[in-house]
């Protein structure tokens, strides 16, 4: 089950009903969705989002500005259908780490789905698309900018391991998505596009603190007996 799935559904309905009140759209999760396998009127769109992950083994959490989301969308008037896959990431520290689902903020969900609705208008309805902000989407998650300069851990990104998704130059702001996809599939919001080329995993590991405490304890355990021995030797006149 996707975290916050009810918020994903409610937000999508609010955004699409504003634009297409007489059509009935549904959003559903499909964990097996693949790039370039669609047909029968399906269109594809992929988006880089900003989300938090937490390791279910060690509890460590991290934030990534490069969380891949793949959508398939199809209109058969008056019905529309969207399938969505959120790509997982796994902990860098645990050898047997599981892939964890991303957790998006409500602002992040608004941003992703605002871009999706824009793509639906553009590609399913062939409409001239307004600015993304006009769709009611928050273009930029307030925290995203702060995490847009780090490197992307490709070894632990499900999308990267599948080999077709994330940009090649993980640290370069000027890097381009891989040529397998047309640039039109990427969010056109300048802030999101800029950030989509970078990502940051910020580790908030409790192990660092524990290691520091261990080093200090060891230091104290060695130094105190040494001082005692030196004092004793000094008193007894050996030194
Ligand atoms: Zn872990
Ligand atoms: Zn990746």
Q: Could you describe the 3D structure shown?
A:
The chain is an alpha+beta fold. The protein has one domain (5-188). The chain is built from five helices and six strands. It has helices at 5-19, 106-123, 158-161, 190-196, 206-235, and strands spanning 24-29, 43-54, 61-76, 79-86, 89-90, 99-100. The strands form two sheets. The chain has a four-stranded mixed β-sheet. A hairpin with an 8-residue loop joins strand 5 (89-90) and strand 6 (99-100). Helix 1 (5-19) packs across helix 2 (106-123). The longest helix is centred in the last third of the chain and has 30 residues, at 206-235. The chain is elongated. The termini are far apart. Residues 136-140 and 169-205 have low confidence and may be disordered. Bound molecules: zinc ion (2 copies). One zinc ion (ZN) is lined by residues 66, 152, 154, 157, 159-160, 165-166. One zinc ion binds at residues 55, 57-58, 60, 91, 93-94, 97.
Question: What attributes does this structure have?
Answer:
single chain, 239 residues, alpha+beta, 4-stranded mixed sheet, two-stranded antiparallel sheet, 5 helices, 6 strands, 31% helix, elongated, binds zinc ion
Hetero ligands: zinc ion
- Reading the helices and strands in chain order gives HEEEEEEHHHH
Number of discrete domains: 1
Main sheet strand line-up: 1-4-3-2
The main pleated sheet reads as: 4 strands, mixed
What is the count of β-strands?
6
Q: In percent terms, what proportion of residues is strand?
A: 15-25%
Shape: elongated
Average the pLDDT over all residues and give the rounded result.
77
Rg, nearest Å: 24 Å
Which residues form runs of ≥5 with pLDDT under 50?
136-140, 169-205
Structural class: alpha+beta
